[in-house]
């Protein structure tokens, strides 16, 4: 029993790393643009399909392929922001961005269906199937690499935010958009680039998701609701919070999974509701959510 | 002055009578079950979107959890009919139960969710929605993934659709009337004050939690009842159909297309979108073009009619009347007193920006 619990905790932490890769982009986009990007789930799947295409037609290694998919997803993100989200203003912006990003999700999903069909796919490489034994635990290589990738990318985003001028503009925009505009920050450029970065990180998350799960164009919806639960729990806009919340949620889920796989996913949402009753801002939320 | 006020009013009254007559004779003119099927679904959505708008449209708290009440109402009727062995037309006596179940669920749901605002509120409603969907799939009394079937109603197909047409029509009319009454009442003003500036509304003495929760429960009650009717019409409910994420997003889209927070807007939105969606899914059964089209439609609506048909249309009419001259400057009264016109949706508390 104790062994099972240890294994479940280790699994939860490793899978949590994969989810952190997907959630970081979402929370970053939220923090700067103040919107919920419903399309993030489908964008993860799009990233997975891009990796799939590269490894199928060019036989490119999955991690090497990221050098192509990450910039590609960055461009896609900037285009989505520029074409649709930039235009939304006014009181109902929150709900309208919800609808717009959902519409984008529907369109991307439809296109993926047209190209790849509904049959589930999975990414493959030599390290996807094999695992290594450390201290008596079997750890799949892919999760180890993925966890390392998550740490590297999150560190890179931190460096981007705290060591560069662009990062300073981003943080200024997060704190107070009007003030940032007043001191000469090009807020709409910051917004577009941040959306791009948030979507670009998703490419890595998508590759990891695709290597550890089988996916079809419809998989994005289950993902987005989990990712939303994670970023709310971590505190909206907090990148460290997203990492902690991913690991926490996935560990809880994998622990409950020992007793009842069916209820594990319910616990996922129940934990969110419970935590928010006690602490409405999540783990690392700064102020109580801004007034309407 | 009198004539300018009363003429549109008389026209509106006449329009309502024409609409009522048209709605009543509709099944007699279009007797095909295919057509009445569209009409029944459209009316179901008119009723639910009016209920949704009563809470979300007036208060500004966009809920993506309305399907919780809809599905629970459906399940309540199905489970009660199964366990209490109720057959035939007697199942309609269970509809108040569906409404009560909606209301009972809304109280704890609201107490938790209404503590937070905006994005967090939206996500909590999504979370609660998934809890219900997964619970329905995992509990044994809900029939697991198979769901629950309704008792057989001994009606012929045409009769079946026609009767459900009138039942759903009654639900829709009731929901609209309740929404309109709420909007005119002090209660509705308080809701809209919360939408404009919740902290200020509280400062002005609105008991915000109580007001929000009451609206949430009223909205849930109507939705639960309509969920029960929908179940009897469809005769089957499964977890993904009773608790359907697309359902919630459709409601939001309908309300936005027509005009959030108005009475007629969501109705118009429902009457356009629900038949449109049904038509698209039937027309493109084995392609994914319907999804792409639907997404494109969403985008067009939000980008080009962002305020909804009714407010935008109202503005056009006003502009036409004033013939290009600037319209009458906004009167700083709190609310248009005798007949709050649908289009003008002036902030209830003083404008901030």
Could you explain how this protein is built, in words?
The complex is a heterodimer of chains A (292) and B (353). Chain A has a two-stranded antiparallel ribbon with strand order 1-2. Chain A has a single domain (2-278), classed as ABC transporter involved in vitamin B12 uptake, BtuC (Orthogonal Bundle). Chain A is globular. With 292 residues, chain A is an all-alpha fold. Chain A contains twelve helices and two strands, in the order H-H-H-H-H-E-E-H-H-H-H-H-H-H. With 353 residues, chain B is mainly alpha-helical. Chain B has one domain (26-321). Helices cover 71% and strands 1% of the residues of chain B. Chain B has helices at residues 2-29, 33-59, 66-83, 95-113, 118-138, 157-184, 186-196, 198-203, 208-234, 239-242, 245-258, 264-283, 289-304, 309-321, and strands at residues 148-149, 236-237. Chain B has a two-stranded antiparallel ribbon. The longest helix of chain B is centred in the N-terminal third of the chain and has 28 residues, at 2-29. Chain B is globular, with a radius of gyration of 21 Å. The two termini of chain B are 32 Å apart. Mean pLDDT of chain B is 83; it is low at 334-344. Classes of the chains: A mainly alpha (292), B mainly alpha (353). The interface between A and B is large, with 47 and 48 residues.
Taking the alpha carbons of the first and last residues of chain B, their distance comes to: 32 Å
Number of strands of chain A: 2
SSE order of chain B, one letter for each helix or strand: HHHHHEHHHHEHHHHH
Supply the CATH architecture of chain A. Orthogonal Bundle
Order of helices and strands of chain A: HHHHHEEHHHHHHH
Tally the structural domains of chain A.
1
Strand content of chain A: under 5%
Q: Mean pLDDT of chain B, as a whole number?
A: 83
Biggest interface: chains and residue counts? A-B, 47 and 48 residues
| Poorly predicted sequence stretches spanning 5 or more consecutive residues of chain A | 288-292
SS summary, helix count of chain B: 14
Shape of chain B: globular
Reported by name, the CATH topology of chain A is ABC transporter involved in vitamin B12 uptake, BtuC
CATH class of chain A: Mainly Alpha
Strand order of the largest sheet of chain A: 1-2
* Class of secondary structure makeup of chain B: mainly alpha
Secondary structure tally, helices of chain A:
12
Provide the gyration radius of chain B in Å: 21 Å
